[in-house]
Amino acid sequence: MYFNKNEKQHLLVIGGNVSGLAAASQARRNAPDIDITVLESGEHISYGTCGLPYYISGIVDDINKLFVYPPSFFEEKRNIRILTGHKVTALNPNKKELSVKIKDGSETGIFNYDKLIICSGAKPVDLKTDGLENSCNVFHFRNVSDALALKNYINKNNPLRAVVIGGGSIGLLIAEALIKIGIKPVVMEKSETIFGDFEKEISGVLSERAVNQGCSLFVNSFVSSVIKNDNNNITELIIGSNVEPCSENISADIVVLAAGIEANTSFIKGNSIELGHRKAIKTSPRLQTNYSNIFAAGDCCCVKNIVTGKYAYIPTANNAARMGRIAGENATGGDEIFNGSAGTKVDVVFDLEVAKTGISFDEALSLGFNPVRIRDTYPSHAVAIPGAADIKIVLIADYPSGKILGAQMIGHDGVAKRIDIFSASITCGMTVSDVYNLDLSYSPSTSTVWDPVNKICGKALLNFKKRRF
């Protein structure tokens, strides 16, 4: 059942990027007569966050190219009211109202709703290092405003040395962007390897490539303190080690914080909406919270992992878009289910495609599976054709069922399309035997007769048969 047609109904959406705008747009398709308002804390909406590092490097020469639609599109074409500079500070689900700080904080307001969709996204993790967050040459890298601030500082001050805190996707993409414009980056990661959610065979290849491209890596490291000059700029960071009692001073002209994210749900604190891992909102498969008139989608939510059946924090653009549409559908009377995610992702960094789907070997082990790890390297296409490059694959499968639990790959070409095959296979509950027998396309310029996907599954079958684990 849709909204009560006898009176004007109000739908509020918190968040003006992928999930929020997908939710608002789907709600409008279902309910042409209701009021729909999107509240966005920043000054920009509808942009490609993943493209921001390419603006820093100059590959994208105009940041406006990263915007998909202007606010006027939603207001004029879809009759959706867009309010930027409106930060939600509190939610009272019993009164059905939001407290909102407007623009620079000089004004506050109360917004009432009949239905609410929370798409507040994620925020950077607070590193809790004295002097780090409030320095003039320290930058987060989460949104358009962050990217503009970093770019403007670089253009005005011509820095030569940077420290990037965080060795995940964003950290490495920023490091690559800085190298392209002549800035020497040091990447500092608290774990024992960069790209810590990957198997070591994969992250090791990327580490070697990053160093060869001019990036210095400090792993098992943390910022213990900072040294500033009279202009409140950090000039040195004192780096501690997680494995030995020592420290090292690293000079820096700029510092970029990319040490991970958590759900942006601080405005929910103190009420009874249920939260889970990394402060993310718990929802039903219909993306409904424990309040029937409040839905949630995107990076602020827990997501069902389709391999484990458990809810986890899996913030990806694909999940955000799909969840947003379903939340908008269900908030206006639909009954769709979000089946979950395999956590599929791919990055192109230092000219390498790095991709994963499903769970890692260690995750599988901790969850009670009997995982087997199968590794090998194959050419991306026929070696007689120029451009063939190695693809390293790590496949995780359950023994003796053969069910595929996860796959990870790295290579210069052909990785993204193959990780999607494994993502589909995991979603459908396929085994290594099923995937070994898939009829995959072949051309000498795009594959080998036996595609690497078929080959790694064939190797898994052989290992299972001979019990070589």
- The general outline is globular
Question: How large is the share of residues in beta strands?
Answer: 25-35%
Name given to the CATH homologous superfamily of the largest domain: FAD/NAD(P)-binding domain
Structural class: alpha/beta
Radius of gyration: 24 Å
- The largest sheet has its strands arranged as 3-2-1-7-18
CATH class of the largest domain: Alpha Beta
Sheet having the most strands = 5 strands, parallel
| CATH topology description of the largest domain | FAD/NAD(P)-binding domain
**Beta strand count:** 25
Structurally, the number of domains stands at 3
> Alpha-carbon distance between the termini?
54 Å
Can you offer a commentary on this structure?
- This protein is α/β, with parallel strands linked by helices and 469 residues long.
- Helix content is 25%, strand content 27%.
- The chain contains eleven helices and 25 strands.
- The protein has a five-stranded parallel β-sheet with strand order 3-2-1-7-18. It has a five-stranded parallel β-sheet with strand order 9-16-10-11-12. Strands 21-22-25-24-23 form a five-stranded antiparallel β-sheet, with helices on both faces.
- The longest helix is centred in the last third of the chain and has 15 residues, at 317-331.
- The chain starts with 9 loop residues before the first strand and ends with a helix.
- The mean pLDDT is 95.
